[in-house]
UniProtKB/TrEMBL annotation:
<feature type="transmembrane region" description="Helical">
    <location>
        <begin position="520"/>
        <end position="539"/>
    </location>
</feature>
<feature type="region of interest" description="Disordered">
    <location>
        <begin position="597"/>
        <end position="619"/>
    </location>
</feature>
<feature type="active site" description="Proton acceptor">
    <location>
        <position position="145"/>
    </location>
</feature>
<protein>
    <submittedName>
        <fullName>Putative nucleoside diphosphatase</fullName>
    </submittedName>
</protein>
<dbReference type="Pfam" id="PF01150">
    <property type="entry name" value="GDA1_CD39"/>
</dbReference>
<keyword id="KW-0472">Membrane</keyword>
<dbReference type="GO" id="GO:0016020">
    <property type="term" value="C:membrane"/>
</dbReference>
<dbReference type="GO" id="GO:0017111">
    <property type="term" value="F:ribonucleoside triphosphate phosphatase activity"/>
</dbReference>
<feature type="region of interest" description="Disordered">
    <location>
        <begin position="672"/>
        <end position="702"/>
    </location>
</feature>
<feature type="binding site">
    <location>
        <begin position="182"/>
        <end position="186"/>
    </location>
    <ligand>
        <name>ATP</name>
    </ligand>
</feature>
<dbReference type="GO" id="GO:0004382">
    <property type="term" value="F:GDP phosphatase activity"/>
</dbReference>
<dbReference type="GO" id="GO:0046036">
    <property type="term" value="P:CTP metabolic process"/>
</dbReference>
<dbReference type="InterPro" id="IPR000407">
    <property type="entry name" value="GDA1_CD39_NTPase"/>
</dbReference>
<keyword id="KW-0378">Hydrolase</keyword>
<keyword id="KW-0547">Nucleotide-binding</keyword>
<dbReference type="GO" id="GO:0005524">
    <property type="term" value="F:ATP binding"/>
</dbReference>
<keyword id="KW-0812">Transmembrane</keyword>
Length: 702
């Protein structure tokens, strides 16, 4: 087992499956090379946008033909991973397929058949570490996805490792996390000390581990709202229109641009269709955004019974949020709808309620024909097509309602926080420009790294591999109780020592043959100096003999040189000699390490149904058991989802029946293989020069 550890996660969403590959130093190596600050931080993970790949459509489409999911869907993803991870590390690399939106709508039998085929295909065609299919290949609930997202956001923002630079007041230094997909929405945050004490039984205890083995614990509230994703909310909205005017054939819709006629499923009205001849009702856009806001408000279900005060939406309990210290970042639909139209993807602009609402109102009040002309002219950016323009008025109205009327986020630009922002001058200087000290900020990337829940999962896993004293408590999450509660979800990793002494040989190779252009010229100068010194010391007669031999060798022509495989041939890349090439870094592929561009497919943060529970001998992450209702992710589908009771993380609702397990050894592939360049060194290594082509996720935000 080498110095680098790898991990592979397949995010199986509704529109497709995206593979993510992460890399970090073996914990023993990381501890040996870490500075004092790094010892007190979480492990440093590396990734690259070239290390991600997405395949369409989602695996849920194989419900009727599960045997095809391997060759028709997974094969290119596995091939991609095997091209990146060193061959000798494949057996040490765990692979996870964690399904979110699409798989949750499949019947249980079809869901099980697809997951079994995924695991069988992975075992038959690869050597990835996959000891327990039920724990590695599964559907995760929305709460787990939200917790992983909270970890990823705070990891990238520095809330974990640099609390003094993120002091929001009242000893609070983490950020809240909001996620919204098509079927559900999630919230995750650490309440202030008063609320945490008052609602301690409702919180999830999250335990991670720093590089020096010290525990890092947080009490986090996480919950999901089923049916509150944009697609499901739209379905409920259209149903309300139909119920309000059951006899009408033309239903005025203030959440559509003026003059737009579509079916209740959101499709164009075709000649001769039931809608055109009056046999079925259709929607007519009126472009009245204030009225759209008024009609979406009831969908929040604020009047639902609240058995456990306080509640937010649909009677779901949520501890009171102190917006003086709780600053939220929102991903997925929060980003797409607030920035991809009205900010044209200007990621550094903070969300401003007053400005945003004015832009939405101006956009949605235009005639549909005017909007179509603007789309052709790319007036609102290259990502805005007719589908986006058709949906954005309702989506914007729904986001505003959820954020401000539902969650209670203050309206920046209209409402003011008591006392303003609490934080040090350094914090304001560090984060003010990007708005992270505002009550809410929509984000896609932080420091050019996509905020993905898969990153949070792997950060938790990597920290579980760090060596700790025998009495140390395990890494993972569960009920907020002392010790290891019965529903504790183990992160899955375990400490694995380095095999042999890798420092000398590996560092020598990394130093000489790393991809930095400074390495080879330095080596050539060193060899030239050695040659000159030896030449001068060998005496006049030997120098004369050596000159004759050199002349004799080079005078024989190039044919004999091509057959030589000595050190000179290897070093200078002569024919038939081994060459060092960097497979990853050719052309545009040699970019700073970051996740790939996010797809606006709304397949994030959706609720789960029927999580799978299994047992293992201590190699894998345990399964979380939860049952959720949901509906198809189509934006205008008429099949309405039935809203269930709010599901939080308090015991024993979500995290139950988990079996205590040992760790899992993680690994993923790198295209930095030998035929190619050597491995890279960790940030801050005192023994190696650093290549400009490799940047850790932590450095990108620091």
């Amino acid at each position: 087992m080498g110095k680098w550890r790898y991990g592979v996660i397949l995010d199986a969403g509704s529109s497709g499956t995206r593979i993510h590959i992460y890399r970090w130093l073996n914990s023993e190596k990381a501890r040996a090379e870490a500075s004092q600050n790094e010892l007190q931080s979480l492990p440093v993970l590396d990734t690259d946008k070239e290390w991600t790949k997405k395949i369409h459509p989602g695996i849920s489409t194989f419900g009727d033909n599960p045997n095809d999911v391997g060759p028709d869907h997974l094969e290119p993803l596995f091939k991609h991973a095997l091209e990146i991870i060193p061959e000798e590390e494949v057996r040490n690399t765990p692979i996870f397929l964690l399904a979110t939106a699409g798989m949750r709508i499949l019947p249980q039998l079809k869901q099980k058949a697809v997951l079994e085929q995924v695991c069988s295909y992975a075992r038959e065609t690869t050597d990835f570490q996959l000891p327990d299919c039920d724990l590695h290949i599964k559907v995760i609930p929305g709460e787990t996805e939200g917790l992983y997202g909270w970890i990823a956001a705070n990891y990238l923002l520095g809330g974990f490792d640099k609390p003094e630079e993120h002091d929001h007041g009242k000893d609070h230094h983490t950020y809240g996390f909001l996620d919204m997909g098509g079927a559900s929405a999630q919230i995750a945050f650490a309440p202030n000390a008063t609320e945490a004490k008052k609602h301690s039984n409702d919180l999830t205890l999250l335990r991670m581990r720093t590089v020096n083995g010290e525990p890092m614990e947080y009490e986090v509230f996480v919950t999901t709202w089923l049916g509150f994703g944009v697609n499901q909310a739209r379905k409920r909205y259209v149903e309300a229109l139909l119920q309000a005017s059951p006899e009408a054939q033309e239903l005025p819709d203030p959440c559509l641009p003026s003059g737009l006629n579509i079916t209740t499923e959101g499709k164009p009205i075709t000649p001769g269709s039931d809608e055109e001849v009056g046999r079925k009702p259709h929607l007519l856009g009126t472009g009245n955004f204030p009225e759209c806001l008024r009609q979406t408000y009831p969908l929040l279900d604020k009047d639902a019974p609240c058995p456990d005060q306080p509640c937010m939406l649909h009677g779901v309990h949520v501890p009171a949020i102190d917006f003086d210290v709780n600053h939220f970042v929102g991903v997925s639909e929060y980003w797409h709808t607030t920035h991809e139209v009205f900010e044209m993807s200007h990621k550094d602009k903070a969300y401003d309620f007053h400005t945003y609402q004015k832009r939405v109102k101006d956009f949605c009040s235009q005639d549909w024909e005017v909007i179509q002309e603007g789309i052709k002219e790319k007036k609102w950016g290259k990502k805005v097509d007719e589908t986006t323009a058709l949906e954005v008025c309702f989506k914007a109205s729904w986001l505003i309602s959820v954020l401000h009327d539902g969650i209670g986020v203050p309206r920046v630009g209209i409402e003011h926080l008591k006392g303003g922002h609490n934080g040090t001058k350094a914090v304001l200087g560090h984060a003010k420009e990007k708005g992270f000290l505002d009550p809410f900020q929509a984000v896609n990337k932080i420091g050019d790294v996509e905020v993905s829940w898969t990153l949070g999962k792997m950060v938790l896993y990597a920290s579980s591999e760090i060596q700790a004293p025998p009495e140390a408590l395990a890494v993972g999450f569960g009920s907020n109780e002392p010790g290891i509660p019965s529903d504790f979800q183990y992160a899955g990793g375990k400490y694995v020592p380095l095999s042999g002494n890798l420092s000398a040989d590996e560092d020598w190779h990394d130093t000489l043959f790393k991809d930095s252009p400074r390495r080879i010229p330095g080596l050539l100068i060193f060899l030239l100096i050695v040659f000159v010194v030896l030449f001068m010391l060998c005496g006049r007669d030997r120098r004369k003999t050596l000159r004759h031999r050199v002349h004799h060798i080079f005078g024989r022509g190039s044919g004999s040189l091509k057959r030589r495989r000595g050190f000179g041939g290897k070093l200078f890349g002569l024919n038939n000699s081994p060459t060092y090439e960097r497979v990853l870094e050719s052309g545009e592929g040699a970019n700073v390490f970051e996740l790939g561009e996010v797809d606006s497919d709304n397949d994030h943060s959706d609720s789960s149904e029927g999580s799978r529970v299994g047992r293992t001998s201590g190699w894998a992450t345990p399964q979380i058991k939860a049952g959720f209702d949901h509906g198809p992710p189509s934006y205008f589908d008429n099949n309405l989802v039935t809203q269930g009771a709010g599901l939080g993380l308090s015991p024993p609702s979500v995290f139950s029946n988990a079996i205590e397990r040992g760790g899992l050894i993680a690994r993923t592939d790198s295209r930095e293989r030998m035929v190619g360049s050597g491995h890279r060194s960790r940030t801050g290594s005192p023994t190696r020069m650093r290549s400009p082509m490799m940047t850790s996720l932590k450095e990108l935000v620091d």
